[in-house]
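[job 0412] stage=complex_fold ligand=iron/sulfur cluster status=START
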Amino acid sequence: MTFWFIRGLRRGVVTTRYPARPDRAARYLPTPPAFRPEALTRQAADELAAICPSGALHRDGSVLVYDVGACTACGRCAAEAPGAVTASGQFELATTDRSVLIKKIPIRGEAP
Ligand code: SF4
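[job 0412] stage=complex_fold status=DONE, emitting structure tokens
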């Protein structure tokens, strides 16, 4: 115990230097989705909303409403529609304004 304490004082925190330096493990983190409006159709948006376990997605007319604050980055939507949804790679999403986390994605894809 004493050894670990002294080593910790000498080296400081060694598990990560984030945010002072980029975290090497960040590329392995699951991140919220990014949507391609031109690849989204109304039907696809409805299907994505139906499979989202956290209720982070719903369609409002020709807009897919995405609540980043409710998203758990589970990846189901990206697996369902890989052409329209990809991982964003973003995880620094903290904000004091809840409304910033509500994204309105226009649906521009044509129905097949
Ligand atoms: S990653 Fe999961 S929780 Fe987030 S929007 Fe997609 S299905 Fe919903």
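The helical segments are 2-11, 42-51, 76-80.
[job 0412] exit 0
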